[in-house]
Amino acid sequence: MKKLLTSFAILASIMPTSVLFAASPIPLDKTAACTERVNHIPTFLTELSTRHTNNSARMQSGIDRLSSFITKAKAAGSDTSTLEANLASLQSYQAKIETDHAALVTQLTANASFVCSEDSIESWKSARATTKTYFDALKNDIEGVKTLRTEIKTNVQAIIATIKT
Amino acid sequence: MNISKKTIFSAFFVTFMSVGAGCFSSTNPTTAPVTPTQASTATPAIPATTATTPTTTPSNTSTSAAVTINSEAAQTETAKKELQKLSDSINEDLGSVSAGEANY
Lengths: 165, 104
Known about the structure:
heterodimer, B: mainly alpha
């Protein structure tokens, strides 16, 4: 018996955990994982809300400053048509972020009351996949803003360079 | 020269008569009758103001132009700096927009 236990201990130390516990009841793990995620949703929603508030404020600030830049550059005789197009794109992203954020919050709020069980695992998977599409949409919006930021930076610098002192 | 009193008298008489005939003539004067002058209602002309002699202040044109150019350059420099600040702020604003992690 002692030998058997020693062999098992040796085997356990050299084998990956997943292989070792491959025979454990998978639905139970999935249910536990589901519960863990559901319980974390309120915290995530709070984080998401804070981030969204900050993002909205920064976006609005960026839009206001870009508008101000355009007005001043125009007054200095610069051609601001490209920047005006950038500003319109930025405003579109601002509106899209609002929509996508709201959709994500709605989905997460629904997920927060999900009851995890062996029977509802598939339904949970589906709910997570839907949530991911909303989150990906929001991420894409943010990526779009980042790309636009680089474009705006280039266009703004080009205008500043044309102003001779 | 021997001029008799009679001659002198005659000459005096003739002269006196000719002058007197002119002065006391009854013929109308040929000059046009003078009409009474009407009181003028016209506004009396404002006497022209005395032209003032322009005071010429000595000016150095080249210095003035240089000051203007310097002033414009300073203004443009300020505007440029302001635009650069705005550019930095826009970059910072948009750079801090973050999606975060999908940790749900």
